[in-house]
Design brief:
The protein is built from six helices and eight strands. The chain has 176 residues and is of the alpha+beta class. It has two domains: 79 residues, Arc Repressor Mutant, subunit A (Orthogonal Bundle); 64 residues, 2-Layer Sandwich (Dna Ligase, domain 1). The strands form three sheets. A three-stranded antiparallel β-sheet has the order 1-3-2. Strands 5-4-6 form a three-stranded mixed β-sheet, with no helix packed on it. The longest helix has 13 residues. The radius of gyration is 18 Å and the shape is globular. It starts with 14 loop residues before the first helix and ends in an 8-residue tail after the last strand.
Length: 176
């Protein structure tokens, strides 16, 4: 299996810094690109391409254009793509570096952590199974401390994704 190229991750203070990076890399900075950047800088966490397209009030933008811009920004190390639970792919500014995530499968709470905080877990997985684990694109899924101590809500439906069998509470049964 071919490994993805490593992209330098750096912090961007504002949109103008990203625009300079884009231009230095030979890219045009279009109006849709600026809309995507504005949404990313305004967000307080990972957001979906659809959210960006839906929130573009001054300049309507097609979701396909949003995805193209996000892919370009990801290739330059500006954004990180992550899947949190059963949600669509989300994007966030890299900020101070890569982040890894813990997601509660009951309440949906997402905890963003510095990758170094999971090094002990990675070491155990490496020692026991020989895998180099990463939790940046897909999170560690489980129960947050609050939900782990709470009584189980009404049981959900059970279903499969291939050979993987799992269930969801009824309130989320049709969200995927």
């Amino acid at each position: 299996m071919t490994q993805a190229p490593q992209v330098e991750r750096r912090t961007f203070a504002d949109i103008d810094e990203v625009v300079r990076l884009l231009r230095e890399a030979g890219h045009r900075v279009t109006a849709p690109c600026r809309v995507v950047l504005q949404a990313l800088f305004a967000a307080d966490g990972p957001i979906s391409a659809q959210f960006i397209a839906d929130s573009a009030r001054d300049l309507p933008i097609e979701v396909t254009s949003v995805y193209r811009n996000l892919e370009r920004l990801e290739s330059l190390g500006v954004v990180q793509h992550v899947h949190l639970g059963h949600s669509p792919g989300l994007y966030a500014l890299v900020g101070a570096g890569n982040r890894e995530f813990l997601t509660c499968e009951r309440c949906g709470r997402v905890t963003s952590v510095d990758p170094g905080e999971l090094d002990a877990v990675r070491a155990q997985i490496r020692e026991r199974f020989g895998y180099e684990a990463r939790f940046g694109h897909f999170p560690i899924v489980g129960l947050c401390a609050e939900c782990a101590g709470a009584p189980q809500p009404h049981a959900g439906h059970e279903h499969t994704h291939g050979a993987y069998i799992h269930s969801h509470p009824y309130r989320r049964a049709h969200e995927h």
